[in-house]
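fold-stage: in
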Amino acid sequence: MTVINTNTAASVTANAMKSNVRGMEQTMERLSTGKRINSASDDAAGLGIETRMTSQVRGLQQASRNANDGIAMLQTADGAASEMNNMLQRMRELAVQAQTGTLGTVDIANLNQEFAALATEIDRIADDTTFNNKNILQSSQTINIAVGADQSDLIAVDMVDFNLAAGVAGSKETFTHTAINNAFVAAMNPSADDVQLTDHFGNQITLAQADVTAATTAAGLATLINDASGTFRLTASGSDSGGLVLTSDATGPGTQAATFTYTGTGTPALTEVAGVAGTPMGADLSNFKFAGTTDDVDTSGVLAKIDSAIKGIATARSGFGATINRLEYTVDNLNTTILNTQAAKSQIVDADYAAETTELARTQIISQASTAMLSQANQAAQSVLALLK
């Protein structure tokens, strides 16, 4: 049947053209971006998988950088420890030289001067060796290296205190005073001189008069101490029955007792009741002098302590080396996992250029054919006018 009002052939052809144009636009988008999935409508499930894989890959890439940072940190620590070992070897050489009977008092004093300077330099290196502004040899600490995409993927790196005069191995020191209970704290009325505490290393903090007055309990006073600004190597706890207890951070035996200075009602003093701390490498050489100088000390004792310190450094460096090797293998494994995950992600997301160029050629041919057929369909309706002549 020949009609004029409804050109079915043209409508069908136009719809086919629209569908083909959408397909051609999608193909051109894939070719221009290189991705098969450019929006959620392209592949909803594939987009979800790609998002999770992207999170995993980026997490693993950062983990690889973290592991490399850990390697660099340990190499920094090992380099400093190597120099310390060299200085200890020289100190041992000086100690052996000081034992000979051919040296006079002046000669031994000169040896001791170099010995003391080297001991001071070892402590300076321990105090000043940092990585990314973080001191890594000053105290015993555990540094966690994130080596995976998840929160639990950690490698713990145990660092030791390399100060000759500080302690690492051993129990924590505790200073306590049972008299500083709730009633005592509540009754405290500091004068203009605020409450001052000094730890066993001589570090001092000051508690403001108004804060002490507001503390009211032993636990409140302990919180005030822990929140105080400044260096203080004692952690406070308090209760009505046990009073105020200060516990060391286990980085050394210190050189003095902890004190609690309070000007006002009563003047309590903290006394050491427990605590035997060791030394980091089994040696405390800071106060040693050779025989024949002031505060004579048998050089054989010095040799034993130096040997212990050298052994301790060797043990620490072995730990550094083992962890460096572990982290290097971790980096290799992370890079392999990243590569495989990216390959799997590529199969889902990336466009197949061979298939897409073939599809583009097909849709272009169809588009040209559809245009021609639409023209033919439109002309067929006009041919009906010939019947009216």
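fold-stage: in (second)
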Amino acid sequence: MPISETWLLPDGVADVLPEQAQVIETLRRNSLDFLASRGYQLVYTPFIEYIESLSSLSESNQDLDLATFKVIDQLSGRLLGVRADMTPQVARIDAHVHPVDGVARYCYAGTVLHTKPQGFNTTRAPLQLGAELFGSDSIDADVEMVDLMISLIQEAGLADGIHLDLGHVGLFRSLVQKAGLNKATERQLSDLYQRKALPELADFTQDLAFGSDFYALGRFASDLDALEAHLSADVLANVEFKHVFDAVKTTQAEIQARWPNLHIGIDVVELRSYHYHTGLMYAVYAPNRAAPLAQGGRYDGIGQHFGRARPATGFSCDLYALSAGRFEAKSVVVAPKGNQADLLAAIQATRTQGLSVIQLLGQDDLSSVPYATHQLVNRNGEWTVEKI
């Protein structure tokens, strides 16, 4: 490779320069401090693991499996995976490494790696930050997690005009079970719901058991009152379906009570990650952004892969995406060369005030620090900081 090309990076990865790196690092620290204040304990997970450990979600989520880089371990000869999502790792910690009786709350932040970008104009190496709650299957746990997610977005200064989407895989899943559909029909219905293809849905459900209910689920997916009015009495009498339906309404009401000005949308056939989510799903969107700022959901039983199945819910976000378009230039003070006691004391005092201080080297002058904003000068025996 010629020298002119050695500095190039692969598609989908990029350097983060000082002006944005400072914003991202501040956001990371503040976010983790905020999560800690809510009782979420910080964990660090390894960048690579045996593929069997990372497959707790990928077995039921082919997209995650395809997003995972796989390499051969030079020590053991076993197949390793580079983490594409930190949720399976935290589930492993909860199930086996740090088992807790009762409710456990964890948070994390770290780089994950994807074989392909997960969306338009997105990185293959997101800086994922998230929170997970294990050990409670209550509506209160779901509400806590959604509240935590929105509060985190607010702490990041991105709450203006945000929109919360709520969904629940349980309505579709319980209706499929009641109708006794096979996997192929279930996949076709899921695809039609995802594409919002109502004319095709009407044709497809015409000769289907409970076809009118499947059509109503798609036609009135965003209006719970209208959906209830168009569902058959037989479906509404189903214990599992009614339980899920009431849970969605209760969750929406409780979140709205906490955030009266928040716009909440309902989509009960939003079936992204349908195969591993087991209940409520949620995502926060902002104006002029196609991808969600943060998203998550319930995935009960994920720990079964590690020998300890527990209710679980959580969310994650990409700090690179949250900080997109935000830059911060820090004040940099230049101090003259020297080791006089009063100069060194002045430098230390300036740093104590939160300013960055660079002391000149050798024959350097101010021009050697082109990004300097201030200088430390001696005026009548007193060291003072002056703007350049």
